[in-house]
Amino acid sequence: MTSDGTSTAPDRFWSHVVKGPNRSDCWIWTGAIGDDGYGRFWLPQPDGGQRAMRPQRWLYEHLTGVALLPDVLLLHACDVPLCVHVDVDEAVSHLAPGTHRGNMLERVRRGRHRNEWTTLRTSGLPRSERVRLSRELREAFREHGWDAAAVRACRTGIASDTPTLW
Ligand SMILES: [Zn+2]
Asked: What is the distance in A from the centroid of ligand 1 to the CA of 19?
């Protein structure tokens, strides 16, 4: 909280995030979701307006102090669009900057960003499906807190009551 009683940006950010219990788990954004299935973090601007950022980009810039150029993408290794698990340690971070998704896929294949959540499935989904899965995941987390089954369902695009096949 600031002295005038308003929440700071980091306070507001973390109030929308549910972290998994393990170091390698995803951190799920439970705030606003855009029509692309990715999160939106609204930041007040000096002119009194608000600007929406992807929350993972905000956290990356907040933690690293590096401002990402507009054409630099922040790519998910875990393939959970709502995941905001950024770490300055690239071996831990679920997100890494890149200008081409192929670079990231190559790194994942080599094991550098691989963790238990890596499946690379949601990226191939149509946008409408990704939005649906993101909203479902958010509702599950808002209701129950950390929900590994819901993350698994998001990764695979199957309902969370369906037994996992591997
Ligand atoms: Zn993740």
From this structure: 10
Distance of CA 7 from the midpoint of ligand 1 (Å): 26
Ligand 1 centroid–CA 77 distance in Å is 7
Cα of 30 vs centre of ligand 1, distance in Å, is 14
Ligand 1 centroid–CA 2 distance in Å is 30
Instruction: State pLDDT tens for residues 116-164.
Output: 444 445 556 678 888 888 999 999 999 989 988 888 777 665 444 444 4
Residue type, 35: D
- Phi, then psi, of 150 in degrees rounded to 5: -70, -40
* pLDDT confidence of residue 51: 93
Q: How far is the CA of 6 from the centre of ligand 1 (A)?
A: 30
Nearest partner of 53 among 77, 65, 70, 28, judged by Cα: 70
**Can you tell me which residue has the tokens 């956290």?**
59
pLDDT at 55: 97
Give the pLDDT score at 163. 46
Cα(78) to centroid(ligand 1), Å: 5
Distance (Å, whole) CA 24 – CA 114:
10
CB atoms near residue 6 (< 10 Å): 10
Report the half-sphere exposure of 21 (CA within 13 A, side-chain side). Answer: 4
pLDDT at 100: 59
